Each structure stands twice: as structure tokens, then as C-alpha cells.
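Fold this complex.
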Amino acid sequence: MTTKGKPKVAFFDFTSCEGCQLTVLDSLQDHLDLLEAIEIVQFREAITEKGENYLVAFIEGCCSRPIDETRLMKIRDQAAIVVALGTCAHLGGINTLKYLHPLDDTRAYVYGNQAAWFETADARPIEAIIPVDYAIPGCPIDRFEFIAFIKALLLGKRPDIPDYPVCVECKLKENTCLYTKGQVCMGPVTRAGCGAICPSFGQPCEACRGFISNANDASLQELLGSYGLTVDDILRRYTMFTTYQVRESLLRRQNGGA
Amino acid sequence: MVVHKRIEVHHVTRVEGHGNIVVEMADGQLKDCRFEVVEAPRFFEAMLRGRSYLEASHITSRICGICSTGHAITSLQATEKALAVQLSQQTILLRKLALYGEILDSHILHVYMLVAPDFLGVGSVIPLVSTHREVVLRALRMKKLAGDICAAITGRHTHPIAMTVGGFTHFPKICELEQLYGRLESARSDTDATVELFASLSWPQFERETEYVSLTHPDEYAFVGGDIVTSDGVYLPVEDYLRVTNEYIVPYSTAKYTRDKRDSYMVGALARFNNNYDQLTPRAKDAAVALGLAPKVTNPYSNSAAQVVEIVHSMDESIRTIDKLLERGISLEEPAQISIDQAEGVGACEVPRGLLIHHYWIGPDGCLTGANCVIPTNQNIANIEADMHELVPHISHKPLDSIQLDLEMLVRAYDPCISCSVHVLKVTDAHEDR
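Structure:
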């Protein structure tokens, strides 16, 4: 990333809770010098100025409306590097729970007779619309991973996002395995990098960082079986943040397939 | 010739979410003014259906990155009321402490990083890093402390982990609480400097009385639980929230509107201050004096000043709560027992931006069959518009950019939480022949 002066960076948001951008702001608490290394030209929540000349675009939130697609393509045209910031942009995230109900039914439940006033479509990760160069996973992102990511970009290195399961980090923390307590944890198939934060605070992993590239599903099935757990037990976990990723097998199941 | 003025602020900045301000004037007469919420609809209430009662607080914390702890606690309350769960004293204290941490975090972010730049004539906190470095460092230091309180109790501030139905799955160590206690004690000088800074600013003068709605509790300045009270004399248990909120829908906004006795009402720090002033700590009352606030305050811009008062109050109460926890000691207790029966429950908290309600219906299998969430910002939108209607004729003689700034500052004072917004400004000053 060699340009004259500080690289220009912009932040954008789509359907999300803006928690990842708040985590970016929180990262300034320990790394105020970040502002000396990059120039933030757009950051909706924090600054009034709006620059259209940027090299790196960080995008939070999933695409859930037709108008979002146009905006995403405009950002892609401008930015040399597009980064999906957090689970919603990376995977579709919590918003993809919509897939579990018919869309019209969802809209009518919230807006009643006036449902037709409000435009919405299926929630999708931004990769479904535009090419994405990198993803910083997590709901929310980890602030230290964000800083490490920026450092790597500034050094021209490929950012190091782990591709091994959460269990590795959980073991290093010497946590008691939650399966031994009768809970269903997504740790065995989920991408690490969070420091196994949920199991460390007593809660099962919910796969917010998405699946590792070579997840051993067969081994997980065996593990589930050995604890007497069923597909239905684990389906709930698969449809927390990653419904978009498993939607096709869900549909097969609904239609009576295996 | 009619002079038409149109102000359209597309995606107001330094607020959380996508909102537009639209004002149209002809010959100084106000034709139209709206605060449009154009955030993509999220459908959380529909998405909760069919999910386990154990997941509801994890799902709903994702409604908002900045008040995720408040959503989680309110969600747990709704579930626990439905399932008749009795909480331990320790659980109650830990949850209160987590919410004080969030009130601090959110208010510090709002007053320092989103509101203060307007008063100092800059577009963001970034230029202040060089011009007012000490102020920025103080804000970051205070915000870090607030976030660390939440992290010690729940694992992290944004999207808390360790809170579950009936209790906690992880507990802070005594040494962590002692450390937080020490840091809170030594942060008193930062709090004093905060009050001094905001007392020195010249706040916009504008009065419009409205109905102020908040929780109230006999024993304390209410944040976690209580009954609903309004300045127009309504007093209701939270289960009867629909009698106050009366949600309705307008075509130009994806957020639902609310109204009670009048066409609009206000929730948030100012409403709490007006309704529960007597229960503020002595130091918070001193801060109110320094900031020139005495109930009933009817200037909506003062909502940010009331947040400063609540920063002082929440620091004091955090210290007091940690003191109680240290005195009791921390017990690694299992969450309270639950027996699932078909039921419904309402949870209510005062989160940074005001009254938050979660209402759940739970089926015999422990899965939610229905949900209703009433969000503070929705309750304020009608009131923001009513303020704009009253304010615009008073400022219509000003140049367009200062009218616009006054309106943006008004919207920001409410600290709306709609999710962050990009600033694409469009101001036109059209002249049209009669």
C-alpha cells in the first residue's frame, strides 16, 4: 500500500448495529496513533466531512435492499481495497435469520397493514454483490485484530486471519470443554481469532466468525452423536449468524431431503 | 417573488443511523418539516419467533452496538418475568453495574465525540486530537474505564456474553473489582473536568415543554426496572406500556412513532432528570447546578447536559455498587432454576437514550412465539419533529447553513440511535417567480 502521504480510508455502513465501527472507535483508546498512520475521509458516525477519494473501504453491515446494491458497487468502483468489517458484511450475520420465515410474513409481523411501504429483500453478505478483498470476522470485530489488520496493510503484508478452529484457542486458555457440560458449541468448525471469548465467559461459540475452510463436519457429527445430540440441537447454532451459508441445506431439509 | 428555502440533510452525521432532515419554507413560513428515518428495516421482532428463550438476549443485543448491554438486560428481564425466575441479589447488582458501565460509555461517546465538535466549530473529534489533545485523551480514558466495567462483568461491552437467563455464566474476580474501584475513584477529577467543560459551553436557547416519560423506582434513580411515570401524571406498571407508547407508522420513516397524551413525548436523560431528579447523588446534583439545570428543564438541547449529570451519577453509583459487591464477596452461583411454561413477560430498562421495552411470548417448548420491542429513539422522533416545527419559525431569518446547524444539533441532542450515517449534504436556496 504505497501512496504518497497517509492512505485514505473510508468507513461505510449497511444493515447492521454499527457495533463494529464503535469497536474501531474504541481501538483509539489504546492506539490514538492510528490517526497518524491513516487518514479517515469518511466515517458516518464520527465525522461530518465526506471525502470521495479513498483507497481502502471498510464496510459494515449486510446488503438487504436493492438500493444497497448500487451503493456497494459505487464504493467498489472507488476503492482499491474493500474490507468486510464484521459478521454482517462478511457472512450476512444475524440479519439472515430472516431466511427462517417467509419474507412477506416477516414484514407483515413488524409493519402490519402498512408492510408494503417498506422495501426489503433477502439479507446477503456484501460478497454476494461485489468482490471483497479481505474480511475482518466477528460479531463484533475484535479491536486488537482490527489494529493488527491495519498494521499489516500499512506494511504491505497479507493480514493474518486464522484458519483453524476456536477449539485451538479454547484449549490454550485451559477452558473446560462445554460439550462435557452438555452444551452445543460451534468451536470445532468455527474460525478462531477471537481468543475463544464466548467459551471463556461460559457461553458456547455461536460461529459468528464463520466456518474454517476445511471444517471436519463428519468429525463434528460424530462428536454430536457421542454426546447424544441431534441435528436439530445443532441446527439452531448453525442458524444464528450463518443462516446464509447453510440456507441451501436448510431448504433441502424443509423439502424432505436429507 | 416567493423565496423558497429548502434544507435537506441527507443522512445526518454524528448520530447513529441513517436519518434525513427535510425542511421547506416559503417566505419565512414553514411549509413542511420532517425527520425521516431511512435505516434499512431490521425485523428483529419477527426473527425472534421460533428461537429458544436462551438465545433471545444474544439476538436482541445485536439491535444496537452501543446499547447492546441494555438490550440484553431488558431482554433477560422479559424472559425471566415470563418464566417467573427469581434473581439473586448478586445478579441484580452485577447487572446494574454493567448497565452503569454502558450508560457511562454511551454518554461519554455522545457528549465528547458527537456533540462537543459542534460547540468547537469542527466537523469531528479528529481535529481536536491536535487542538484539544488533553480533552480527547480524557474522553478516551473515561470511555475505556466505562468499557472495562462492562467487560469485567459480561466479557465485552459490545454484545455482552456472560449474562444469561437467571444469572451469569462467568464472574468478575475480586481483584478486578478492586482495580475498577480504584480507577473509578481516581477518575473523579476527569468527571469534574467534564462538568467544567460542558458548563463553559454556550448552549442553544430554545424552550418547548413536552411530556417527559421514564421509569421511576422508589429506592433509586431508575435504570434497571421500575414503573412508567410521565410528567403529565401517568403512572403505570411496565406491563401496561402500550397505554403510553401507542405505536403508529408513517410512510416516510422505517421507524415506528409513538404518542401519549399529546402528539409527542420525550424519553432519555432529560426525561429521567425531570422525573427523578430527587434521587440523583449529591455530586450529580452539584453538577446540575454547575450546568444550570433545575427540573423541569424544557430545552431539548439540554439533553446532552443532562447526560453529563448522569455521567457523574453513574460514576458514583458504580463505586457504590462495587463497594456492595466487595462487601458481599462474589459467589460462583449457578443461574436460577427455570421451569418452562407457556407465558408472556415484559422487561423495561432506562438505556442511554431512554425507556426500552421488550415484551415476549414464550411457547411450551421454550421458543418465542412473539415479541415486541419499543426502542427509545422511536419514541423521540415525533418529539424531534414537534421541536423542529416550533424552532424553525424562530430561526428562519438566519442563513441556510446556520439553520441547518441548529437543526442538526437539535437532532444530535436527542442522541438518536438509528445506526451510523454518511453525510451527503444537499442545501438549496431556490428563488421562484410568483
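The two ends of chain A are 48 Å apart (CA to CA).
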